[in-house]
Amino acid sequence: MELELTTAKEIVETSQKYNLHAWTVQGSSKPLTMIGGEGIYFWDGEGKRYYDMSSQLVNLNIGYGNSKVIKAIQEQAERLAYSSPSFAIDVRSQLAKMVVELAPDNMGKVFFTLGGSDANENAIKIAKMVTGRYKIFSRYLSYHGSSYGAANLTGEPRRYTCEPGIPGFIKFFDPYVYRSPVPFADEEAASHYYLQQLRDQVIYEGRDAVAAIVVETITGSNGVIIPPKGYLNGIRRICDEFGIMMVCDEVMTGWGRTGEWFAINNFDVKPDIITFAKGITCGYAPIGGVIVSKEIASYFDDRFLNCGLTYSAHPLGCAAGIATIEYYQETGLIAQAKERGVLLGRILEDLKEKHACVGDVRYIGLFSAIELVKNKESKEPLVEFDHDPDKVMSKIIGTLCARGFFTYSHENTIMVAPPLIITEQELESAMAIMDDVLGEVDKSL
Ligand code: PMP
């Protein structure tokens, strides 16, 4: 392969001329270039180095340049680069066994997809087939993907371009305790309030109409919202009461991000279906999946599973998945993420204490968000929901980026989710940049 583009200028100009970029205003924004990466760092076309403090799209858990995973992909490409997803091949069988064995013990089989969006779409299809119902519940502050069905499942504004949506997709409010309209005595009281609302909503939609309730186990891109105590258990109870499939979207939270293999392991709950992608290969090759309970798996023993894409369960993704899981196991990286998360939590609490602009910090493992406000007492958000005409948040992200701290924001929150391989020293140095930038935001209030 010979590349004719060598300088950063050529790469950017050609890209702006020929590429339509995801999630971007095409004309006015200049894409960041990326030339290479190592560990938790990547560098751009001018040689500037960045701490990757969002692990790209919260998927690069093992960082850049992992030779074990690279080698596994190379070897697989030489051995067998492609096979239709309905064939049994060694890496596909082995990865399936590893995934099911690491999942909660009620799980029986896995259906491999291409990524997270189609994992969620297949989860919906499976829930509809198994229950014979068509209504699907999901939450307003959720992101479940960008393909048409997954975007309909999504609750936040990234859904709007797909509206009017697919009939039967119903939204409910999140247990966003920091911004609750009513004060609660404790977390259980908050859970009780939100669950009661949800149960009523299910009944009003029809006691035997709902196929699935889909939740991100911990809300990710919409601000790392950790469910209050008892909330997920309550969702399980509602699902059991009405014969509904409980689906946990673990696309962002699975594979170690929260210091556990799956975020659901932080709670004493067993869903019927778990979807995943991202951290199973950390982006080295694409693959995602839908893990289903033993009961659901057996439903298909004598029925046709009408799901699949040409590239689902791709051999390169399977090989990368095996090598990544082995890497997690050999290095103890997931336990390390939990431990490092304690340090991250301490740093975040200090930032909250110190800065007038920090209203809330939420964290678990190496998964966290900083919520910015104009006023700590009133909790008035730094920017209103879906309304930031002065681009306040992108200016803050731009300042962080200029100082070598790469991450992204969503509404009035900043994501902090570094690769799980980050050292204590790297975490402290990177967060010192955040501290400085938040100081400047304080001055602007
Ligand atoms: N679900 C969640 C919770 C996600 O965070 C994402 C991606 N950010 C998706 C689904 C969609 O995954 P993909 O981009 O791999 O299609």
UniProtKB/TrEMBL annotation:
Enzyme Commission numbers on file: 2.6.1.11
GO cellular component: cytosol
InterPro entries for the chain: Aminotrans_3, PyrdxlP-dep_Trfase, PyrdxlP-dep_Trfase_major, PyrdxlP-dep_Trfase_small
Pfam families for this protein: Aminotran_3 (PF00202)
Listed Gene3D superfamilies: Aspartate Aminotransferase, domain 1, Type I PLP-dependent aspartate aminotransferase-like (Major domain)
Keywords: Aminotransferase, Pyridoxal phosphate, Transferase
Enzyme class at the top of the EC tree: transferase
Gene Ontology molecular-function annotations: N2-acetyl-L-ornithine:2-oxoglutarate 5-aminotransferase activity; pyridoxal phosphate binding
Cofactor(s) recorded in Swiss-Prot or TrEMBL: pyridoxal 5'-phosphate
UniProt-listed CDD domains: OAT_like (cd00610)
Family: Belongs to the class-III pyridoxal-phosphate-dependent aminotransferase family.
Protein name as it appears in the record: Acetylornithine transaminase
Organism listed in the record: Syntrophobotulus glycolicus (strain DSM 8271 / FlGlyR)
